[in-house]
Amino acid sequence: MPIHLTRRGFIAGSTGLLVLHPFSARAQANQAHLRLMETTDLHVHVFPYDYYADKPIDTVGLSRTASLIAAIRAEATNSILLDNGDFLQGNPMGDYIAYERGMDQGQMHPIIAAMNTLGFDGSTLGNHEFNYGLTFLMNAVAGANFPIVSANVAKSAGATPREDETLVPPYVILDRTLTDGAGATHPIRIGIIGFVPPQIMNWDAKHLEGNVTARDIVATAKAWVPQIREDGADIVVALCHSGMGDPNAVEGAENAAIALAGIEGIDAILTGHSHLVFPGPDFDGMAGVDLAAGTINGKPGVMAGFWGSHMGLVDLLLERDGTSWRIVSHTSEARPISQRNEDRSVSALVEDAPEVLAAAQAEHDATLDYVRRAVGKTKAPLHSYFALVADDPSVQIVSIAQSWYITQMLAGTEYADLPLLSAAAPFKAGGRGGPEYYTDVPVGDVAIKNVADLYLYPNTVRAVVVTGAEVKDWLERSAGIFNQITPGGADQTLINPDFPSYNFDVMDGVTYRIDLSQPSKFDKDGAVVDATASRIVDLAWNGAPVDPAQRFVVATNNYRAGGGGAFPGADGTTVIFEAPDTNRDVIVRYIVEQGTINPAADANWGFAALPGTTVLFDTGPGGAKYLSDVKGVQIEAAGDGADGFARFRITL
């Protein structure tokens, strides 16, 4: 059954000289301004720190978001602070607590301690709350000084959602006092209900199967919202840890915020999960949302980015009608903690809140020790010096980890029996980054911060289904990084410097050769320039030529799967799985589980033979020590390149 909480008034904010929100400035007698403040997808980012890169950054951190709170509260006569889930997992501090320190009964989780410091009024569960298992989750949330709700996760399911025994309360009603425009106080009852994607049953099956069930978001809301109204709520706020989705309800949808907002009885919706910002250009042109009005299916709503990047604000002008309240006007915004300047640098817009830092200082210090020491070992050096010319261990480990993860995620689905390929590209491969801009982790210990060398970006894992013909064209697109080579010519330049290395996808699970004598089918931007060109030869799966009509699952990242780089078969329409995890986290988990990894290159791809032909390739001088490890390529030192690079000769 729901919990009813009573607290005298709202938490007092600063009374500094700030401009009041128009609703507070203009409210009359029997009218009151209520501000809903949202954080979402904090992912344990208490500190403004990138633990993978092991350096401070200005774009993340609850300690920064927190410094907005006093001023934001002072702009409004009445306010409450709510979190939208995904707070327990998502950076190395979360992993340190889960894998090393532990989360026993009675222990305090650092993100919960930080949230307690700020006086949160409520939260819901996100999908990542389940990543470490139910015991960890329940021990962690037991320390919260605020209610945590989720309506669609049940320990035992009844005939209807309202007959479920939910894991945590499905909703709460906050009994509060509002001050109106004339200074008089009035009671208000605010219902808070939470939802999580039902896909948690797939994403964390090993923890959840047989222990809980997850219902459809919209169907669950239709059952519970009338109950909240019957229980006396004046307004109902949905904490929707889900992306926007289709305006029409789709059974079992991961992203259902728009459809959820359409349910009668819900007055405002706080959403997240997608790590985007609403209102904002991320949703320009999307059906069911109105950027100017800040509405989702006609209801005021907000999505506050991720990792503490924004504070979401929904402002409601309420009018008292007898003994109840109704919304007469509303505004929405997502207020950032940093800004990107014209020179692409980032400037902080706020300082840290010292009390928030203090709440997690000990765990932050322990996390720094954790990321700086080994979490596994590698039998092969992880370097990217030759990633553009040969199968490479730094790309290999990414591909292996992606395949390992997607195999688990697709188990039991309609795609489980399709051949699985994995596409990955080198990120640190010299170029404009200079001769030192390469991954270089020697044989031996691998620390968590080394993963930043392996995978620079906070992408998330995706899987797409493509045909054999699209696999070939995907690789043709990648092969555009190479200049066309004249057979029999000596010391020709191999790499097109205008082609970014992150668009040079290597694909594990198939074998193939690249015929450099042929023209490229695609230009550097992915446009077709020669429809008849064919550089990819001997493309085979399981020892047999790839059938153009055969279907394959390809593990990749959200950038590529969504159309980044303009790769055939990857335009956003072929996605079959959107992971809740970053590629970095998957690599770390794989290393932790394996203990010792051996990502030696297997030479599944290479160049087709061109007798009597040599090409030149520049890379970092540090690559010389790994020259004998390069597989499938006849390569030798060829002196110095320009600007500090070393030059190597490849005999084709």
From TrEMBL:
One of the GO biological process terms: nucleotide catabolic process
Keyword Transport in record: no
Keywords assigned by UniProt, alphabetized: Hydrolase, Metal-binding, Multifunctional enzyme, Nucleotide-binding, Signal
Places the protein is found: Cell envelope
UniProt cross-references to CDD domains, sorted A to Z: MPP_CpdB_N (cd07410)
GO-annotated cellular components: outer membrane-bounded periplasmic space
Keyword Lyase listed: no
Reactions performed catalytically: a ribonucleoside 3'-phosphate + H2O = a ribonucleoside + phosphate; a nucleoside 2',3'-cyclic phosphate + H2O = a nucleoside 3'-phosphate + H(+)
InterPro entries: 5'-Nucleotdase_C, 5'-Nucleotdase_C_sf, 5'-Nucleotdase_CS, 5_nucleotidase/apyrase, Calcineurin-like_PHP, CpdB_N, Metallo-depent_PP-like, TAT_signal
A UniProt-annotated Pfam family: Metallophos
GO molecular function: 2',3'-cyclic-nucleotide 2'-phosphodiesterase activity; 3'-nucleotidase activity; metal ion binding; nucleotide binding
Ranges of residues in domain Calcineurin-like phosphoesterase: 35-275
Cofactor(s) of this protein: a divalent metal cation
The 5'-Nucleotidase C-terminal domain, residue ranges: 439-568
Family: Belongs to the 5'-nucleotidase family.
Name of the protein: Bifunctional 2',3'-cyclic-nucleotide 2'-phosphodiesterase/3'-nucleotidase
Organism: Tabrizicola piscis
